[in-house]
TrEMBL record:
InterPro entries hit by this protein: Beta-barrel_TonB, Beta-barrel_TonB_sf, Plug_dom, Plug_dom_sf, TonB-dep_rcpt-like
Main location: membrane
Family: Belongs to the TonB-dependent receptor family.
Keyword Signal in record: yes
Membrane topology according to the record: Multi-pass membrane protein
UniProt key word Metal-binding: no
Protein name as annotated: TonB-dependent receptor
TonB-dependent receptor plug domain mapped to chain residues: 58-171
Gene Ontology CC entries for this record: cell outer membrane
Gene3D superfamilies cross-referenced by the UniProt entry: TonB-dependent receptor, beta-barrel domain (2.40.170.20), TonB-dependent receptor, plug domain (2.170.130.10)
Amino acid sequence: MKTKFELKPLAAGAIALLCGAAGSTLAQAQEAAAVTAAPPAVVVTGSRIPRASLEGVSAVTVLTGEDITKQGYKNVFDALSNLTQNSGFTQGGDYGNTFTPSANTISLRGLGPNHTLVLLNGRRMADFPIAYEGTVNFTNLANIPSSVVDRIEILSGGASAVYGSDAIAGVVNIILKKQAEGLDVNLKVGGTSRGGGGDQRLQLTGGKSFDKLNTLFSAEFLERDPLWSREREFMSAKVGVAPTSLLGRKNVSTGQLIDPGDACSNLSDLFGGSTVKYAGKSGSYCGSGKVAPTYWTTQTKNSSQNLFGSANYELSPTTTLFAEALLGLNRSTNNTRGPSWTSASTADSYFWNQNSKTYEAWNRYISPEEIGGVDRYNRSWDDQASSLSFGAKGQIPGTSWQYEAAYTASLYKSESHTPRARSNIDSFFLGPKLGVDADGVAIYAPDPARLTRRLTPAEFDSITDNANSRDKSWTNSVSLSTNGEAFNLPAGPVKLATVAELGKQGFSNEPDARINQGYFNTVTPSDVTAGTRKRFALGVEANVPLLNKLDGTLAARYDRYSFAGRSDGRLAYNAGLEWRPVTQLLLRGNHSTSFRAPDMNYIFKARGTGYYASSTDYYRCAKAGQPVETCEFANVSPGADYVQSGSKNLRPEKGRSSGLGAVWSPSTNFDVTLDYWNIKIDDLVTNLSADKLLRDESDCRMANDLTSPTCADTIARIVRNPLTALNKPGEIKQILVSPINAASTSVSGIDISGKYVLRTQGYGVWITKAAYSKTLNKKSRQFSGDEVIDDLEDLSNADWRDKLNASLTWNQGDWSNTLFLQRYGRVPNAGGTAFLAPSTLVNASVVYRLNQRVTVSVAVNNLFNRVKPDTSGGWPYYTVGNYSPTGRQGWVELNYHFGS
């Protein structure tokens, strides 16, 4: 939930109430104390100049640690992902099949996770070592202990003039607590009313002051159960479509299936007794509608331990030494497909059967009953994230200027373990290879009984092993920043801030060496990808009082990056005005330029290959006249192969951001904000998604447009088998993806937020807050010469068009009760054929303070147990990524404080 506030004397009491009060008596005492005290100067995200107000030239949204608990958020990521400004669709741990199932990220303004800069206490962290969607670098939000979060500040809009590259869509600055006394033990246990997906959390947070030394620590331990598709009735089986083939033989020359005889009845107990003999237009095979649900987790299993510690030592009245350390250990497990085999899959997927004297293709899908349980085919990731910062801060001797000198190092390591078929799998099912024919097709004399006999776990282990990859990313930097008053103008002092930074970052992706040694059932090489780059930056900011009630801000920063034998520098600037015609009203406007150096993965990516878990051939569906939801070529698993490579010739992206806004605070009990924003990016670096490429290819081919820039590029990227091929004629052979500098994209919209506090004598304090964000325009052009695309009307764009958050909190005595409403605007359905109607979810929480040491709370998310159905794209019958199949979730939380 977003809370905008200003630390001026008239409002400080309301802020103390909103952020810290569980009881009205305590809140009123805090208010009285705050009104008499001068507002402290704080550094607000988007500027390095301390100020007394969080309301400035740019809109900054603030989430407090209290918000995370009361709004029903599970963690830092959950709170950020529900921001109204977070309109972009992202794939995370609960997406299902994704490149990064152990990580979570956000996409401010729908511009992608790599365009939002995430900071921890104002400092950069190492990227997650595996690229999002296999393409872009991003920061993982899953390893921040929520127990030590003081507040999170979110600046939406360009901020390269202050922070450098990456800050085109905005900045998220996670600010941790600096001090604590005693020890807090927090235990949280929860589950779902529909079953599955339970979780537990233990947090230990404490600190102590020793004269001039202040210390703080936090330990967080989390366990989360997986949620399997079979645990939700509406997607526990595929319906209305042909069942997935578990066992099949095809005569490649005729295209007809060979009847399996009694094999299906002999295997009828597989996949929970769902195996049947199915007669299709090409013949009969053994199939089941429960294959995909059996092997699919909609929520990953997760076990994590996060540790944080900090210390501040007052070396002298003008100098403080500081150190901070963060360590996160995370193990994630998921499942998106079961083990399947297709004959000669490393060649043409068919062979010469010496016994039948025909070219045949065989396939087999192996069931959980044969391998010792569905968990045997889980994928897992072991991640370790660490960060260390230390330095000195204080007052420059002989001046009133403040300084901070710091060194920061951050490291992220990930090891993945993925089950893969070994190279002996063909001989296991077909017997020894007898050679090749004149066309190079493999010759076998297989026993059909080998295909129809069930496997034992030991046999499965003999043809399967884990491919283990090691991925790493790191960054380190030194920085020196200063701020103070430079000189006086008639309207007041001119405040300046300067910054100098020097840093280096790198990454490496090391696949299992056995992939290139013939150990696994693949001939596609998998290469090591690695790279480093250096950067330095100089920046300056100024706050200039132009008139009594009119202030101007100016900022400029120069960044230079060196990588891949080249060097590229960019200057970004920011200018803004703040005008208070009356004390209660602030009018603001700003304009800035931004830039983004190309992602390191885009630059250094070696030739990468693989296959998608599932693919939809929209062109073949359209040619056959079949709707996507019932098309035989839709959601085929495993999906199409891809080839991906990087480019060292990419240009930096260039951005421009503008904003106009107003903040009206007529009293401490009421305020409202309205902001208009506009962001434009030129030379956008992007890889089109495979699904979008396939959709565009279908549109182009069906319209017989083979020559327009986008269509020509798209059709060249979808490599198909010739229509004259003996096996799989016209089917997708490969999808070629590589990064390019797209022509342009632009997005604009409005943010509205408000707060009202009603204080009563006998009925406590009532607090109402609301925030709304709406994207007004979003347009893009892939190549110069292409038509401009209206992304808001594009049914392949899964971003939210608008979002609304609203809450009502009632504090009385030792009770604090919150009702939180989230309304999600329209998004395209899974089939990309129409828009889904908006949907609203309601969360509720109750916090009760038993005494000064013990607090108990109960939270229920999705109070009315709503799951939004969507059958347009076929199984799993909901819009994956936009909506959750979890249903109602509940938690009980206990917090006990030891010490004073």
